[in-house]
């Protein structure tokens, strides 16, 4: 394991850039997995990172030691930093000091949208995106398509909120949703308060593409018009709408419920 | 309407304190509703604010003018600020410049927990709390109990995430949950991955108290032991758990679904 002790070390400077700057991450095609849970999930579901970085305070920590051992066995570079240098990289408060640098996964788009999927139009909040990825993975949905302008799925914030869900999903970013939805071979469903069909009445025991949008403005009207069905989550009259990640969770798990009922 | 133009004005300094500091809000027993939507919702469901503050750039804006008129009619103080002074108060980016100062609602606790409710043990994230309040209000739940140590429900962040749900709910803070749950006359339900009963199998067509906990550690074991029933949201094996606000939304709306089915 390589020890870096100086702030002026070239690799340390590169790590700081990756930790602090979305454009640096984009340019390098790399991102950061911050904390024990994400690192373990990555090793479990994907592969070895490019670099494993640990705080020298935590090298003896059992979980960190195990992560380090697995990384070294798989040929990943490992680096230890003094606690103060490590803290300048990490966004996890009071966490155990381990993080991975990984290549940001780049997947080739499928030719058509044909399996149960989530389609996100201009979703902004990293916490909402992470929560939606987590709910999708929990509900057994495997594909997520994000429009140009949506929050970056592989940012450290979204990764933390996703709690490892990223590694169970195929995530496509910067997608032209108009083209995607035009060619879809499964029904496109969107939630709306201007419809009477509830999610409970809709047949969800089939693959569908769930379309959700911007926190304030919702789905772009042109894309909304491409939905084959609009469904509503019945709510008491006084409240305007649910948080988009809450709506998504309700939809995905109503689909799970209908799948369970159909199997019984 | 009073115009304040100096940063050194005593009332402006007080407003800055309220905007910036949780302890100042607590000490004053006041909080801030930031933006058109929250102000409108407060006027609709509650009453006039103590103070209505507007940016002088926005006085002519139709929605702001209407809010101002309603405030003045109801005897609230109104203040205009130059845009730069206003921006130093507001946390809403690119918003329309209107905010309310209100007395933080303080409700007397009911003697017993006897109506459909949400009970939150040490929930930390303001976005999660706001989302849970929104989902609860949407599902027709009226009472929310927050433990000592939970995020402050009336902070500007939680208010923004709640989108007006606060004004449809009775929110009790700093609650001794142990005492509350000991005396409850309705079943206490908690989610757990260590149980086989799914939320779909559980009878939710009755008032229940939904118990949720800390984002990392979950519900305190002693409180968890007070749950009459633990239920699970069935998930694919690989993912650890859902975001707490997503879980809550799924539970609340499964209850809504069962209520609808029972009425049919």
UniProtKB/TrEMBL annotation, chains A, B:
Pfam families found in the cross-reference section: SpoU_methylase
Recorded GO MF terms: methyltransferase activity
UniProt KW keywords: Methyltransferase, Transferase
SUPFAM superfamilies linked to this entry: alpha/beta knot, L30e-like
Keyword Transferase in annotation: yes
Domain tRNA/rRNA methyltransferase SpoU type: 117-252
CDD domains, sorted: SpoU-like_rRNA-MTase (cd18095)
InterPro entries (UniProt xref): Alpha/beta_knot_MTases, Ribosomal_eL30-like_sf, rRNA_Methyltransferase, SpoU_MeTrfase, tRNA_m1G_MTases_N
GO BP term (any one): methylation
Protein name per its UniProtKB record: RNA methyltransferase
The organism of origin for this protein: Undibacterium seohonense
Highest classification ranks of the organism: Bacteria, Pseudomonadati, Pseudomonadota, Betaproteobacteria, Burkholderiales
């Amino acid at each position: 394991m390589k020890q870096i002790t100086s702030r002026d070390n070239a690799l340390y400077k590169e790590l700081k850039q990756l930790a602090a700057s979305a454009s640096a991450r984009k340019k390098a095609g790399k991102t950061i997995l911050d904390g024990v849970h994400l690192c373990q999930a990555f090793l479990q579901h994907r592969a070895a990172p490019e670099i494993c970085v640990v705080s020298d305070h935590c090298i003896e920590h059992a979980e960190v030691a195990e992560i380090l051992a697995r990384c070294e066995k798989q040929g990943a570079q490992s680096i230890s930093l003094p606690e103060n240098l490590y803290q300048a990289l990490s966004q996890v408060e009071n966490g155990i000091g381990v993080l991975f640098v990984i290549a940001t996964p780049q997947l080739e788009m499928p030719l058509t949208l044909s399996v149960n999927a989530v389609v996100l139009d201009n979703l902004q909040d990293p916490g909402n995106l992470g929560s939606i990825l987590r709910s999708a993975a929990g509900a057994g949905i495997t594909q997520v398509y994000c429009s140009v302008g949506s929050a970056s799925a592989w940012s450290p914030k979204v990764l933390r909120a996703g709690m490892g869900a990223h590694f169970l999903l195929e995530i496509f970013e910067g997608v032209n949703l108009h083209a995607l939805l035009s060619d879809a071979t499964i029904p496109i469903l969107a939630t709306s308060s201007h419809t009477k069909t509830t999610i409970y009445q809709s047949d969800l025991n089939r693959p569908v593409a769930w379309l959700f949008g911007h926190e304030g403005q919702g789905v772009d009207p042109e894309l909304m018009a491409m939905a084959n069905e609009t469904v509503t989550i019945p709510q008491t009259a006084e409240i305007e709408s649910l948080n988009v990640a809450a709506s998504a969770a309700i939809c995905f798990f109503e689909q799970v419920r209908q799948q369970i009922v159909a199997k019984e």
